[in-house]
Specification:
Elements (H helix, E strand, L loop, with lengths): L1 E6 L3 H12 L1 H8 L3 E7 L13 E2 L2 H5 L4 E6 L7 H10 L3 E4 L2 H17 L4 E2 L11 H5 L7 E7 L2 H13 L3 H10 L8 H4 L2 H15 L9 E2 L9 H7 L2 E12 L2 E12 L11 E8 L3 E8 L3 H17 L25 E7 L3 H8 L3 E3 L6 E5 L5 H8 L5 E7 L2
Parallel strand pairs: 1-2, 1-4, 2-3, 4-5, 5-6, 8-10, 10-16
Antiparallel strand pairs: 7-9, 7-11, 9-10, 11-12, 13-15, 13-16, 14-15
The protein binds L-homoserine.
Length: 401
C-alpha cells in the first residue's frame, strides 16, 4: 500500500480526493498497489466533510512521515508550495502538481532535486488541465523535432471570447460567470492579461527544448482590448478571435509570445470553443497533431494530477524522463516574425492609412464610423512604425494562419 498526502483542499485538492475515491479500484489496479490518502493539508477545518479526519494543519507531519511516498500538491502559488516541495523531494517523496506558477519558475531546479533523490516531480495538470500533453511530449514524440507549438491554453479567456462572439455578451459579465464556475484564477488578471497562458507556453517551450524558457521574457498581450465589434470583422474575414500562446523555432531562433489573434477556418484551433483548450504541435517528421479537451475545472485538472500520482507509484525509487535544465533558453524578439494585421481605423483616417500602408484589403464589417484593413505581411517593428503615423487606430489584431 502506498500512502499519499494531498496539499490544499480547495477546488483542485478536493477534486484529487474525489477522483481517487471514485476510481479507487481502477487506480489501485493501475498503480499495482493500493493508493491510500493518509493526510489532507489545509489551514482550514472541514466539519462534516467525509474526510475531515484526514485533515492536518502542519506540513511537517506529512514531510516527516516516512510512510508517505507520494504528495499531490494543489496549493497554488510559489510559497509555501516551493518550500514544501523541496523538502518532500529531498526526503525522496514524489510530488505531483497542478501548480503552473511553481513549475514555470522553479521546474528545472525541482526536476533536478527529484533526480538526485530518485523520485519524481510531475506536473501534467499544469498545462491544459485534463489534456495529456506533457507526457506525449516527453515520451511518444521523442523521435521528433518539435518546431512549433500553438495553444489555446486558458479556459477562462476562451470562454469569454466564445460568449462575446456567439451571444454578443459583455466582457465583465462573462468573466464573472467564468469565476463562478471555478475556471478563473483567484486574481483573474492572470487569465485576461495572458499571464496564465504565458506561464503554460513557457513550460511547453522548456520541455520541448530542454532549457529553461522564462515567463518573464515572454511577451504577453491579453484580451481586455478586444471589443464586441471586433467579432464582426472576424466574421467578415471568415475568421475567429482566439488568445494564442505561440512557440516557434525557426533557423535556430526561438520565439514565444501570447496574444489574441485572428485564425482561419483551416486552422484546427478555429473550432475550439468555451472553456476547452487545445494544443497544436508540429514535428519535423510528425507534421501536425492536436491535443484537445477540458483545460480547466476541478475534476479534469484533478484527473491529470491523479494520473501523475499513479505514475509516481508505479515508478517508486526511479526517476522518469522529462524536465529541463536551468540553462536559460534564449528567446528572440517575437516582433521579427512576419504576419498580417487587421487594423480598424476611424473612417476619416482611411485615406491616411492607405497612404502609409500602401494597398491593403478593405474589410467592411458594416459598422458606422470605422473601417478595417488587412495589411500585407510585415514584421511588427515595421507595423508599429507605420501605425504611429495614424491618428486614430481603434484596434489592431494579428492574423495567424
Ligand atoms: N484559470 C485557468 C484557465 C485554470 O482558465 O484556464 C486552468 O489552468
Amino acid at each position: 500500500m502506498v500512502k499519499v498526502a494531498v496539499l490544499g483542499y480547495g477546488t483542485v485538492g478536493s477534486g484529487i480526493v474525489e477522483v481517487i475515491k471514485t476510481n479507487q479500484k481502477l487506480i489501485d489496479e493501475r498503480a499495482g498497489q493500493e493508493v491510500d490518502i493518509k493526510y489532507i493539508l489545509d489551514l482550514r477545518d472541514f466539519p462534516g466533510d467525509p474526510y475531515e479526519s484526514l485533515v492536518v494543519h502542519d506540513a511537517e507531519v506529512i514531510l516527516n512521515d516516512p510512510e508517505v511516498s507520494v504528495i499531490a500538491e494543489a496549493m497554488g502559488g510559489i510559497e509555501p508550495a516551493f518550500t514544501f516541495t523541496k523538502k518532500a523531494l529531498s526526503a525522496g517523496k514524489s510530488v505531483c502538481t497542478s501548480n503552473k506558477e511553481l513549475v514555470e519558475k522553479h521546474g528545472a531546479e525541482l526536476c533536478k532535486l527529484a533526480k538526485e533523490n530518485n523520485c519524481n516531480y510531475l506536473f501534467e495538470a499544469s498545462v491544459g488541465g485534463g489534456i495529456p500533453i506533457l507526457r506525449p511530449l516527453v515520451s511518444s514524440l521523442t523521435g521528433d523535432h518539435i518546431d512549433a507549438v500553438t495553444g489555446i491554453l486558458n479556459g477562462t479567456t476562451n470562454y469569454i471570447l466564445t460568449k462575446m462572439d456567439e451571444d454578443g455578451s459583455d466582457f465583465d459579465a462573462v468573466l464573472k460567470e467564468a469565476q463562478e464556475m471555478g475556471y478563473a484564477e483567484r486574481n483573474p488578471e492572470a487569465d485576461v492579461e495572458g499571464y496564465d497562458a504565458g506561464r503554460k507556453i513557457a513550460i511547453l517551450a522548456s520541455l520541448v527544448t530542454g532549457k529553461n524558457a522564462s515567463f518573464d521574457k515572454i511577451y504577453t498581450e491579453g484580451i481586455t482590448a478586444i471589443r464586441p465589434e471586433d467579432f464582426a470583422y472576424a466574421r467578415a474575414m471568415k475568421k475567429m478571435i482566439r488568445l494564442l500562446a505561440i512557440y516557434r523555432e525557426k533557423n535556430g531562433a526561438f520565439y514565444a509570445y501570447v496574444a489574441p489573434a485572428m485564425i482561419g477556418r483551416d486552422n484546427p484551433l478555429y473550432g475550439v470553443r468555451d472553456v476547452f483548450n487545445a494544443i497544436l504541435v508540429h514535428g519535423n517528421m510528425l507534421g501536425d497533431a492536436m491535443f484537445y479537451g477540458a483545460g480547466a475545472g476541478k475534476l479534469p485538472t484533478a484527473s491529470a494530477v491523479v494520473g501523475d500520482v499513479v505514475d509516481a507509484v508505479r515508478s517508486l525509487g526511479k526517476t522518469l524522463p522529462g524536465g529541463w535544465v536551468e540553462e536559460e533558453l534564449e528567446l528572440t524578439d517575437h516582433r521579427v516574425r512576419k504576419k498580417r494585421f487587421l487594423v480598424v481605423v476611424a473612417e476619416e483616417e482611411a485615406e491616411t492609412f492607405l497612404q502609409v500602408f500602401g494597398t491593403c484589403d478593405k474589410i467592411d464589417a458594416g459598422l458606422k464610423g470605422e473601417i478595417g484593413f488587412l495589411t500585407k505581411e510585415m514584421d511588427e517593428i515595421a507595423f508599429e512604425e507605420k501605425s504611429s503615423k495614424i491618428n486614430n487606430v481603434i484596434t489592431r489584431i494579428r492574423v495567424e494562419d
